[in-house]
Amino acid sequence: MSWALVAGGSKGIGFSIAEALARRKYNLLLVARNHDDLLHAKNLLEKNFHIEVETYACDLSLAESAKNIYDWFSDKGFKINILCNVAGSGGSEDFPELPENDVSTLLRTNLESTITLCSIIITQLKVNGPSYILNVGSLAGFAPILIKSVYSSAKSAIHSFSYSLRYILKEDKISVSCLCPGPVYTKPSIEKQTMNQMGWLGKHMAMEPGLVGELAVRGMLRGKMIIVPGKLATLISYVLRVLPDQFIAYLIYTFRKQKDNP
Questions:
Q1: What is the model's pTM?
Q2: 3-state helix vs strand vs coil in the chain, percent to 5
Q3: d(C-alpha 62, C-alpha 91), whole Å
Q4: How far is residue 235 from each of residues 179, 182, 239, measured CA to CA in Å?
Q5: pLDDT, the chain, mean
Q6: For residue 140, which of 76, 98, 152, 201 is within the disulfide window of CB 3.0 to 4.6 Å?
Q7: What are the counts of helices (DSSP H) followed by strands (DSSP E) for the chain?
């Protein structure tokens, strides 16, 4: 029996991806930091979809987490053919206001955990193929975002890593996809932050996590490389990829300066 592992699957986009997989009758291994959140997610998914769900609580910002996760599912004999790297953090602060320790945590959670989990689980995915990897990037990863510089840089690295991994694993029957959503209202604070920072554009790009999760899994199973949920976000992603980074950074700088000094 094959399983899907969702790192960061207890709530938000991760839980919505888990729901979309459960809807297709995949059994799930959920990994996240908070044990109570995991238990709540497990109960909901088993009740609503009649599948098996196993959970493992760990902090994905810690270097040893990937090995601990691998040892956990290996010891229990779980065979994985889907890996979803959803764990991440953003927050309202970023460089240079963000304390040094928080910068390191942000980078480990958003970037290092994805790379190390892929590295350590690839052998399992090869044996149990055809398999899938879904890494979660962001629309912010297509451009240098001055107010989210560390976050957008980490997500840009996820995009690059996913492209490389797709061709590295192509002959091993492992499909690699990268989800790149715009604003997703996973909690009220994100909605407020989106409106403050992006205004009308953010309001019309924003999506609910349930739809994002469904579109992510649908795109992954179809072998799509870049998955950008929503028509407006898709259009903007094309524009961001065409324009030079220097020009985008200048536009964002000018917009923020005008907003701060009307």
A1: 0.90
A2: 60, 15, 25
A3: 19
A4: 15, 11, 7
A5: 89
A6: 152
A7: 10, 7
